[in-house]
From TrEMBL:
Protein name per Swiss-Prot or TrEMBL: ABC-type transporter, integral membrane subunit
Record bears the keyword Transport: yes
Molecular function GO labels: dipeptide transmembrane transporter activity
Similarity annotation: Belongs to the binding-protein-dependent transport system permease family. OppBC subfamily.
Domain (ABC transmembrane type-1) ranges: 100-300
Tagged with keyword Cell membrane: yes
Species of provenance: Marinomonas posidonica (strain CECT 7376 / NCIMB 14433 / IVIA-Po-181)
PANTHER family: DIPEPTIDE TRANSPORT SYSTEM PERMEASE PROTEIN DPPB-RELATED
Classification via SUPFAM superfamilies: MetI-like
Length: 310
């Protein structure tokens, strides 16, 4: 356990430094005048000229040598200071906390819906002799082949614009959460239900599972005592692997539905060349990824303590 936590701590430090450094280098390698783009975001495209860009460049220190700017960023990071937005002037850490809260709400809702879809359908497909197995696997393959962005567009066209059941985009009520969370859930469930199915089939065919039936246990008792734990471990571990796809899906979904999360804010910051916000958002996603992976590992060890020995 201590080794795992130490390993994750070192991974967290590496991720924070690596993501921040890579973002720093990439944003300063983009073509175009960064000061002009920031001035346009502040004052509007029609009110920007070379003088406004020069003032922004001087104010934000964009005329510093890259190594000097990187050193200032690194020392601020060691003091947990992410700086202020180049566009709004607000502290980046406050903006990231606000956006991250909305993203976590969307991720949690999508994950819960995907679990409600994937686990029952996966167990149903794994049941021996079930004629629905081929149908459900074919349907999941079809959904898996569709990009999450396309699924979201189809939902907007059908449920928001055509039938008017839900708002097109925005935030403020439970109705705004439905379409983004279901879009995310479908993309996750299309893959995870196969993992549930395969894990369940392997468990149902195992000798220890068949032997428990011979001892006279009912189907429910056998599943409860010997099935749940053995199926849960690979499924939970797979959700940890899916975190990267989940974060990627959230970024696209938030941009599509104008959900005020970290993906939506990151897209706007990239367009405006708001480097502190971009770095803060990227660092937040990296930290969340490492923390969630650690929680997944701890959950797997709690479900099956034998994993400590491996």
């Amino acid at each position: 356990m201590k080794a795992l936590l130490l390993k994750r701590l070192l991974q967290l430090i590496t991720v924070v430094w690596g993501v921040g450094t890579l973002t720093f280098v990439l944003m300063r390698s983009l073509p175009g005048d960064m000061a002009y783009r920031i001035a346009a975001s502040r004052y509007g495209q029609d009110n920007v000229n070379s003088e406004a860009a020069a003032l922004v460049r001087e104010e934000l220190g964009l005329n510093q040598h890259p190594l000097e700017a990187y050193w200032h960023w690194l020392t601020d990071l060691l003091q947990f200071n992410l700086g202020n937005s180049m566009v709004s002037g607000l502290p980046v850490i406050e903006s990231v906390q606000h956006m991250l809260g909305h993203s976590m709400l969307l991720a949690f809702a999508g994950l819960m819906v995907s679990i409600l879809i994937a686990i029952p359908l996966g167990l149903l497909s794994a049941w021996r002799g079930n004629p629905l197995d081929s149908v459900l696997m074919g349907l999941s393959s079809a959904i898996r082949a569709i990009p999450v962005f396309v699924i979201g567009v189809l939902f907007v066209l059908l449920f928001a614009l055509h039938w008017g059941w839900f708002p097109v985009a925005g935030y403020g009520s439970f109705a705004h959460l439905v379409l983004p969370s279901v879009t995310l859930a479908l993309s996750l469930a299309a893959v995870s239900n196969r993992v549930v199915r395969d894990a369940a089939k392997q468990t149902f065919r195992a000798a220890f599972y068949q032997f428990s039936k011979v001892k006279g246990l009912s189907a429910w008792q056998t599943f409860h005592r010997h099935g749940v734990r053995n199926i849960a471990v690979p499924v939970v571990a797979f959700f940890g692997i899916q975190l990267v796809s989940m974060i990627e899906g959230i970024v696209m979904i938030e941009s599509l539905f104008s959900w005020p999360g970290i993906g939506h804010g990151l897209a706007h910051a990239i367009f405006a060349r708001d480097i502190p916000v971009i770095q803060g958002a990227a660092l937040a996603m990296g930290v969340v990824f490492v923390v969630l992976n650690t929680l997944v590992d701890l959950l797997c060890l709690w479900i099956d303590p034998r994993g400590v020995e491996q």
